[in-house]
Every structure is written in C-alpha cells, then in structure tokens.
Design brief:
alpha/beta, 11 helices, 9 strands
Length: about 270
C-alpha cells in the first residue's frame, strides 16, 4: 500500500487504509477488467491501486497539486502503459463529456462535496453508469431516505438514480479518523427518467417550492413558492390525490410526479 501523505484538514482529507473497505468500494461499482473508472481525489493512491489491480482503466483527478508528484512516482508504470492517467483539477468544473459512455466513478470524497457532486452528476449530459461514493453515513442515509424523511437531496438523487447503501466504514479505518462514520453510497443511473428532458427543470421548480418552507404544509409552501392562489393549490392537490395538509418530506417521488403532471396543466 502507498505511504500515506499528510492530510490537509482544510481540504477534508482522510485517507482510507483498510483493504477490505477499499475492495468493497470496487465491488459496489462492479469494477472489472476493461471498465473506465474516474477516481475523484486519489489522494494517497490506496483506492487507485485496487482499481488498477482489477484491470480497470483509471483516470484520477486530484485537486491537491501537492499530491501529484508522489502519485506520479507510485504509479509510474501504470501511467507509462496508459492504463492510468493523472490530472490536477476540480471535479466541480470538470468536463464530463471528455469521458467515454458508461464510465464508472469510484471515489472517497470530502464530506463537504457530496451534495454538490450528486447534483453535478445527476444533471450531466454524460453521467456515469454507476457511482460508488464513500460519504458521511448520515448523508448516505439522507440520499436513500423513504417518504417521511425525504429531502430535496433524496428527491434529486432518486429521480436520476437507483440509490442504495453499501458497506459501513467506521471512522477508525481512516487516517486521520473523521468525527463520524462513513458509508458507501451506490448510485446506479436509471435507464430512463420519468419525465422528458424538457420538463425536468419545471419538475424541480415544483419540488423546490415544496421544500422552500419545510415546516409548513404543502398548501402554504407551494402557494408561496409558486406564487399561486391557495384555492388553485388545493384543487391541484385534490386532482393528484395528495393531501395539501401534508409536508414535503412525506411525499414519494411518484407523488411528486403526479403533482407535477397536474400542475403542468395549470401553468
């Protein structure tokens, strides 16, 4: 296993050193020979090593320029053979169109990046077929939440992906240990979305309106968020068979879909 470099707290760096957990990340994305894998933040290269050993072609994108020289030395042979490419850059501005169709993502990412990354991957014109992301356990649970505990993040993720939980990774398996446990979040791209591309923006306008005032009922949050009279909101909810006295977090993805179909007729 490569030597572990000094972790920068400012960048949320925590190196995973447990071979079993690293293997579980590769298993979660079903990485096999011939796969093209984008690894976000190779860091110390411990996960990179596992991906390469499985015969994947790896493109490693590292934000921290200070880590690049050590990675170049550790993976000189793989870089020379073309099995691996190494870039310094920011995933938040990365051009996903540069990647081949059906690529995969396997990554141990900083906690602060999770929500932003899920949104970027969801809305990308060239999304991965599957992403196995090691994230904060609480966030992973939010992504896969069921009605009653739904959030804008879970609605977004589940609209685009089949989201499931993988292995729990305790904090003590990292160096330095974070304050909380992590969990593998597996996002498998849905083969088709419940709405055509041209309607997705309007759908999420509705959902964001519903979550704009989480503690209020749908009647109040939708009326305020959509700037629509409450009587019309009541009528639309009745048509969609959704009680306007409910709160946004109780609605399933299918109920949001039904509500959107009704509201689209009135806007």
């Amino acid at each position: 296993m490569p030597d572990l470099p000094h972790a920068k707290k400012s960048l949320g760096q925590h190196w995973l050193r447990d071979e079993t957990a690293l293997a579980a990340m590769c298993d979660a994305a079903s990485v096999v020979t011939g796969d093209f894998v984008l690894e976000i933040g190779p860091g110390a290269g411990t996960l990179t090593q596992q991906l390469l050993a499985r015969g994947a072609e790896v493109r490693a994108l590292e934000f921290d320029a200070d880590l690049i020289p050590a990675l170049q030395i550790s993976f000189h042979t793989h870089l020379a053979s073309g099995q691996m490419t190494l870039e310094q850059g920011d995933i938040r501005t990365y051009d996903f169109s540069l990647l081949p169709p059906s690529y995969k993502i396997v990554a141990n990412i900083p906690y602060y990046l999770t929500s932003n990354l899920i949104q970027l991957l969801s809305e990308s014109s060239n999304p991965p077929s599957v992403a196995a992301l090691l994230v904060q356990k609480e966030v992973a649970e939010r992504v896969v939440a069921e009605p009653g505990r739904m959030s804008l993040l879970s609605v977004t993720a589940q609209f685009y992906w089949q989201a499931t939980l993988g292995r729990l990774v305790p904090a003590e398996l990292f160096m330095p240990p974070p304050k909380v446990d992590s969990q593998i979040l597996v996002l498998s791209r849905r083969p088709s979305l419940m709405l055509p591309d041209g309607e997705v923006k309007a759908f999420f306008r509705l959902v964001k309106a519903g979550y704009s005032q989480r503690r209020k009922t749908l009647l109040n949050s939708l009326s305020g968020g959509l700037r629509t009279e409450k009587d019309l909101i009541k009528a639309m909810c009745a048509s969609a068979e959704v009680d306007p006295a409910r709160r946004a977090q109780t609605l399933s993805l299918e109920e949001w879909h039904n509500l959107y179909l009704v509201t689209s007729l009135h806007t």
